[in-house]
Specification:
Strand content: under 5%
Radius of gyration: 29 Å
Helix content: over 70%
Oligomer: single chain
Shape: elongated
């Protein structure tokens, strides 16, 4: 029984997985399209083009389904028109087939059917190769329309899932991976990091670029899932929160890579000595520990803002930033002493402090709340105070006031 329950829970959690949703919707749409084509089109071979079109048209989101359906229908109609013109002027031969394919591909790019450009040439060749061109052309267009309409109606009647939660989880996961790297730097600095450790930090920071690309793809899927979706009431705030969260973490990843590069350059100058040692290493280790907590709290704050109350995550982020700024001041005093003792390394110490300042500023709660309020003002469409946009703007300003009070709290 426990194994059965775990399996059921796993299936429930995967109900909004894009692969699962795509598989179920494609199967249902293709079956319904074939049944509808058999009922509407009498005689002739089985209307397999209808389920084929439904398979190509149906996407996870309604917006993607509409745009894909339009491109698919345009490609088939363009191919049918080209083949009809060729059949009236020339017959089927090797040179006419070559001209037909060339013209179809050119027209496909001109009408901007994107991934369905080859479909223009395929439709033209299939129609030109039959003896009754007009009948074949009508059948191909009719089956395509039936398949596309079936896919669009399926997504319109059965609302597709909103993929905001997976996108939020992807951002939170990126924050956790950045936290893990900062925690690693903190631990190894405390025990006396070497040149090899610094090089490994730099490599780990560069790997974050791939993670950011994956999160960006998840956000694009979430954006599409909210367009024309009846389940979404306040999609503007969710889009702004997710996109601004990724932008902030992307900047933090770039700054973290620059910071790791500064530490790597410093380790090369120190050669066999530790990157930092003594009290400097201890305070710097604590600073990175607090920055790691701040990055992780920021990632969880993004998820909380699009799903539930964000006050807890916001408070944890504010505390981590306050402690990080205190550590930053302490390490600045210590590095000033280090620069006086080793003046040839002052520029690396300065670069380290500048990168730390940039990380703390990018994660600032008040700055983020102010940006959200300004963006919601800019996207405002309904001036009525009871409108959803006004409520979102008011919530963002409330968060900004809470952050300001927390900053000035003794």
């Amino acid at each position: 029984m426990p194994a059965v329950r775990e399996t059921a829970v796993g299936l429930i959690r995967r109900r909004n997985d894009p692969i699962v949703v795509q598989t179920v919707r494609c199967t249902v749409a293709a079956t319904l399209a074939f049944a509808a084509a058999e009922w509407l089109i009498s005689g002739g071979p089985p209307p397999l083009l209808a389920p084929l079109t439904a398979l190509l048209v149906v996407q996870v989101s309604l917006y993607a389904t509409l745009t894909t359906g339009m491109r698919r229908v345009n490609s088939v109609v363009a191919g049918v028109l080209i083949s009809s013109a060729f059949s009236a002027l020339v017959g089927l031969s090797w040179w006419s087939l070559g001209l037909l394919i060339l013209a179809s591909l050119v027209v496909g790019h001109m009408v901007r059917v994107d991934e369905f450009v080859p479909e223009v040439a395929i439709s033209a060749m299939l129609v030109l190769g039959v003896s009754h061109v007009a009948q074949a052309a009508w059948s191909r267009v009719a089956e395509t329309l039936i398949g596309a309409a079936t896919g669009i109606l399926l997504n319109a009647l059965v609302a597709p899932p909103v993929l905001v939660e997976p996108a939020g989880e992807a951002i939170a996961g990126l924050g956790r991976r950045m936290r893990a790297l900062l925690m690693q730097i903190s631990r190894e600095l405390e025990r006396g990091a070497t040149r090899e450790d610094a090089v490994r930090w730099l490599h780990g920071a560069r790997v974050l670029d791939n993670e950011i690309a994956q999160v960006d793809a998840a956000l694009n899927r979430a954006d599409e899932s909210m367009k024309f979706n009846p389940r979404v009431r306040e999609g503007l705030l969710a889009r702004l929160v997710l996109r601004s969260g990724l932008d902030t973490l992307e900047i933090c990843a770039v700054v973290l890579r620059t910071l790791c590069r500064s530490l790597t350059d410093l380790s090369h100058r120190r050669r066999s000595e530790p990157v930092y040692e003594g009290q400097v290493a201890a305070v710097l280790s604590e600073l990175f520990l607090h920055i790691a907590d701040a990055v992780d709290s920021f990632g969880r704050l993004i998820t909380a803002q699009v799903s539930s109350n964000a006050e807890v995550a916001e408070g944890e982020l504010a505390r981590a930033l306050t402690e990080g700024r205190e550590d930053r001041q302490r390490i600045a005093d210590l590095l000033f002493t280090e620069s006086a003792r080793e003046p040839d390394r002052w520029e690396l110490h300065g670069a380290l402090l500048a990168n730390v300042d940039r990380l703390l500023n990018e994660l600032d709660v008040e700055r983020r709340s102010q940006w959200l309020a300004e963006e919601l003002d800019r996207h405002r469409q309904d001036p009525v105070r009871s409108s959803p946009v006004h409520r979102m703007r008011r919530a963002a300003r409330s968060a900004q006031r809470r952050a300001r009070r927390r900053r000035h709290r003794p």
